[in-house]
């Protein structure tokens, strides 16, 4: 009787292990894929050129603070949310190409620098419905800053590259900053 119980136990254990490994193989965390399966075309590099308009106050503000700034010298602890128009020209009423939406944080207790997480959402032209995600430090005292392109959607799936933001307008009275952006993006 004991031998029969042991053999039944071993049979049940063997079946359980087979089922466990079968389930694990069919429910894996990742699988291999190919360019063809993802319908990826040839890799190309695209240069985008447009302007971003930040208005930090007044009735038409496009960037607003959402936290209290803890240090007036470094803006430490500051968090701003932005919904900035992107245009073809430097004038605010220039033809729109999309919106830049994201956050600016001031993470340094010692330096006047901000970190930008920013999505460029294109709403016009051949890139309508596509987006790029930028990430990087911005020094408000520098006229030129560089950020990484860390991803994208639509036409810009699998995007990587960099963006150079050049400040061309700094108007303290209007609380306005206009930046010229040159974005170089590799995508399929």
Automatic annotation (TrEMBL):
Subunit structure: Homodimer.
Family: Belongs to the plant dirigent protein family.
Gene Ontology annotations for the cellular component aspect, listed alphabetically: apoplast
Role noted for this protein: Dirigent proteins impart stereoselectivity on the phenoxy radical-coupling reaction, yielding optically active lignans from two molecules of coniferyl alcohol in the biosynthesis of lignans, flavonolignans, and alkaloids and thus plays a central role in plant secondary metabolism.
Signal peptide: 1-24
Record's protein name: Dirigent protein
Gene source species: Linum tenue
Localization annotation: Secreted, Extracellular space, Apoplast
Primary localization class, coarse: secreted
Keywords, ordered alphabetically: Apoplast, Secreted, Signal
Biological processes per GO annotation: phenylpropanoid biosynthetic process
